[in-house]
């Protein structure tokens, strides 16, 4: 049984090395693509005075928003989330924040008393 495992290990060693190299190339390419997308997003958003997004996207792009420091931020989902979640997703340069909610959105949820 041990001989069979050694034989299989030797047989597939080259393929494993090739897969590891390919995986490293893919990961590098993904990082480069992500950086290019951030540069593109930054170029477009740098011209905006107002930025509107969900709190989830604002949290995902926190470094981008911090770098842009938009003066006005509009937050969607305002009826569904609590204020601390909104505040943590804002950049330090935000002077004003507005919440956007629609009539058909869920009412704010409160903790049971």
Give a brief description.
By secondary structure, the protein is of the alpha/beta class.
What features would you describe in this structure?
By secondary structure, this protein is of the alpha/beta class. It folds into two domains: 1-47; 49-113, no CATH class. The protein is 57% helix and 13% strand. It has helices spanning 2-45, 55-60, 62-68, 83-89; strands at 50-54, 72-76, 96-100. Strands 1-2-3 form a three-stranded parallel beta sheet. The termini are far apart.
Characteristic key phrases:
113 residues, alpha/beta, 2 domains, 3-stranded parallel beta sheet, 4 helices
Task: Walk me through the topology.
Layout: H1 2-45, E1 50-54, H2 55-60, H3 62-68, E2 72-76, H4 83-89, E3 96-100
Parallel strand pairs: 1-2, 2-3
């Amino acid at each position: 049984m041990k001989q069979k495992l050694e034989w299989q290990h030797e047989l597939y060693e080259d393929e494993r090395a090739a897969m590891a190299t390919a995986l490293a190339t893919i990961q590098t390419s993904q990082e480069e693509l992500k950086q290019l997308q951030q540069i593109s997003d930054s170029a477009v958003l740098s011209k905006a005075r107002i930025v509107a997004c969900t709190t989830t996207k604002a949290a995902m792009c926190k470094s981008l928003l911090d770098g842009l420091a938009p003066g006005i931020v509009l937050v969607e989902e305002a009826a569904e989330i609590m204020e601390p979640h909104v505040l943590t997703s804002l950049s330090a340069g935000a002077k004003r924040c507005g919440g956007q909610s629609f009539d058909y959105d869920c009412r704010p949820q409160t903790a049971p008393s």
